[in-house]
Amino acid sequence: MQEALSSFRRNNQALAIPLTLERNIVIAHPVIKSKGPGKSFQSNLNLLDDVLDSKTSLYLLLRRGNSAIAITFVPYRAPKDERELYLRYRHDWVQLLGTEDIKISLICKETGEITDARSWDERDTHQQENESRECTDTCDGLHQHSVNIIDAGYKKNKCRLCDRRMKNKITDGALEALRKLENEGDVVQIVSTHHSFMIYSRKLTKMTAQSLNSDLVLSLDLQTSCLSPEQVPACLPTTHPTFTLYRHPNKLLYFIFHSPDSATVQQRMKHTLAIPGVVNVHTEDCGVRVDQKIEIHEPENLVFDERDDKVGRFRSVYLRGGWQGTESQYEGLERDKRFYDAVQ
Length: 344
What we know:
The chain is α+β, with helices and mostly antiparallel strands. It folds into two domains: 2-158, Severin (3-Layer(aba) Sandwich), CATH 3.40.20; 164-328, Severin (3-Layer(aba) Sandwich), CATH 3.40.20.10. Helices cover 26% and strands 22% of the residues. The protein is built from ten helices and 17 strands. The protein has helices spanning 2-10, 41-45, 80-88, 90-97, 112-115, 117-131, 162-165, 172-178, 265-285, 333-341, and strands at residues 14-22, 25-28, 32-33, 58-64, 67-73, 102-108, 143-144, 150-153, 169-170, 187-192, 197-200, 217-218, 242-247, 253-258, 292-296, 323-324, 327-328. Strands 1, 2, 3, 4, 5, 6, 7 and 8 form an eight-stranded mixed sheet that branches. A five-stranded mixed sheet has the order 11-10-13-14-15, with helices on one face. It is elongated. Mean pLDDT is 79; it is low at 134-146 and 193-214.
């Protein structure tokens, strides 16, 4: 562990070190390297998706800026005895690390509380609010743990990060395609079959598709450009739902959920559940922001209206209403929130 820690401190490109408890001994696993200079914090946090398991507790030393953060990850689905063990020794683990580099120690119970940059923005706001007044032992659970480390304990996100939970896996090629939706007429289209997700990218003279034989995986086949608004409806298959991202000549990026009535209920449900992950997570992670969301059930119904509150006949609850933070607003939201928050 000490060797891994020394390597972490020497190398500014080291993003994180996962550590586990084995027979009450802290074992360090290989250092996770960041994607390099110029990459966003969210882009680097995505590297932790393959490290964090919703059924396994661990310790994580994470670099953020010029300081390190000591995280005790005890997910709800991990065995109770395991969670209690990691919580019991979390102060001892932090002391083993030394205090000169570590700014804060905290507890996380969901992967999104670590892997979503919005969680860190929320913590920043909370910490600033606490620093603006004199902090006492009863100050929202924020205590001085040692000379240099603040122990923030556990604080549940205001936003439940539903979109992060509903995120589907995506290939590097698909992510690269989403990053290039910059020019007028650029199109990327995502569809789902019974067993898998595929991304279709179309040219006027050629259209092919490649499918990954695994459930809920986003993948890329081709890209297209120079499509006029009048040509987009012809790209929408009439037998199954599709997601289409289109850069309009007016510079806005449109997200089109085409859900034909002829599609099966299963196809509609898969696409509807996938919308938050596509719009809020994958596109945002690629530095692309959707300006307008549209839902249609027939290609001829596609109309590009700028920033209307509602365009089309909405089957998806996600596309109906406004926003508060990162949560979609719809009738019955508060009732549903009370129900899910009450689940232990």
